[in-house]
Amino acid sequence: MSRNPTSKPPASGSLGSVVDADELFGQDPLRTTSTHYDFEAFRPADQPGTVQRSALRTTWTPESPKEDEPPPPMEVAVGTRYKVGTLLGRGGQGKVFSCMHEFLDREVAVKLCSHSDGVQRSRFRSEARLTSSLSHPFITPVYDGGDGFLVMKRLVGDPLDHLIDADGDSGTTGAHRGGPVKRRKADLAFAVEVIILACHAIEYAHAREVLHRDIKAANIITGLYGEVTVIDWGLAVRLEQGHVPQRVEDHPVSVCAGTPACMPPEVFEGRHDRVGKPADVFLLGALLYHALTGRMPYDDGGSLKSTLAKARDVNFPPVERFNAMAPPRLATLQKRAMSRRPHERPTVTEFRTSLQQWIRQSGNVDQARHCVELARLLVHRAQLCSRREHEVKTDCYLQALAQYDRGLVLCEEMPGVVTERAWVLREFIEACVVGGDITLARLLERHNRLPVGRLSPGGVEKPSEGEAALDQITGKTTTTRRARRQPR
């Protein structure tokens, strides 16, 4: 993405500079999965490999490194301990190289600061200190650090966006000192499980008053053996009284910073006291949106200006437009997390708990589908009955409705089953009217749904309220009716 080096950067700290950013960036499409925009801080123009016109910085991207690029001059402490390997990626604060610890014979990732001015090196030092203070299984561990360098764990895996993008290819993970391993695209259940693990990392950070500010699928690395790591804490800050501080050490903290395709709306107000932990919850909701639709909320392929306008107005298409089969419970949770008002969003713990509840319920899908298939067989048997077999037809319809109800109790999110059950109930009512059983027809019309029976402490299923009412009308007990259903 080329830029004109003669253009002037926008005025810092104003919302107008955000809206007019398209004039500076031209008509280039927004690269949502690989860029950050910080509209209040601009890098110096004399540094190689940096963007002179904007605050764009490229995050970890597997395709971007050039393996034959020579490494920059290294600190003495780094050069004497590590053997420099290939370039892994670039960031706003520097470059990341694959290095080998010669004494331990361990591969690590070393991040080197590419800036020489005091403000940028101060920011690098703040990032290093904050990241090293977080010790969690799902956060990149820091092994060592010094003036201008940071030694971290060498991660092997694929960013989550490579596995869930609608138009992307499946990931390719390189085994440790081995060849690449082709990975298939992830299903929704896998993506939700990864998001749950990422929530644990964010919960841990929030408990220590640390705000990530750039949670997205590209910043979550998934390994072949269940590893999940939240990376890129370059925008993270330690909160003061629950809000983003105005300064950290000797440099100012930008409020309007992050990825435009999923930025929370409160950052556009430019007020530090308006941005807190709910901003990360918004980003988790945007991450869930990405998992449900295969795209980021504001990534429509338009210009940067239109993307920022949509982010400011929280104007994203509903999940159902891209995924008609999306589970309603997850779609509702995503809308809550991406609410315009921060106080209406759930906490990270509530968000994670809701995802875990959906995962537990999704394990009953196979059993629920079995109930639905059995109900369809019973409906087909009822349709084959003649008018003289009205009692058998009634029994088949009752059993079918009970199976539908049990299936919906096991898994509420089965598209079309509720409509199918309503159609069967209407057919049952018409059959009762034709058979002369007007009382039963009125009962079904009035109640519409027969409650599912519950198990008593002794393991015997108690008759439901609907079955008890049917006993009074038909003159048959529930026990007799169930005994007749048992196979001989």
How far apart the termini lie comes to 74 Å
User: Which architecture name of the largest domain does CATH use?
Assistant: Orthogonal Bundle
Percent helix: 40-55%
Strand order of the largest sheet: 3-4-5-7-6
What structural category do the secondary elements indicate?
Answer: alpha+beta
Mean pLDDT across all amino acids: 76
Determine the CATH topology of the largest domain. Transferase(Phosphotransferase), domain 1
What is the number of strand segments?
A: 17
Domain count: 2
Textual characterization of the structure:
The structure is a single chain. The protein has 488 residues and is an alpha+beta fold. The chain folds into 2 domains: 15-64 and 155-362, Transferase(Phosphotransferase), domain 1 (Orthogonal Bundle); 365-485, no CATH class. The protein contains 17 helices and 17 strands. The chain has helices spanning 15-19, 21-25, 76-81, 118-132, 160-164, 188-207, 277-293, 304-313, 319-322, 328-337, 348-362, 365-384, 390-410, 417-434, 438-447, 465-474, 478-485, and strands at residues 35-38, 57-58, 82-90, 94-101, 106-113, 142-146, 149-153, 158-159, 172-174, 180-182, 210-211, 220-222, 228-230, 237-238, 247-248, 251-252, 257-258. Strands 3-4-5-7-6 form a 5-stranded antiparallel sheet. The protein is elongated.
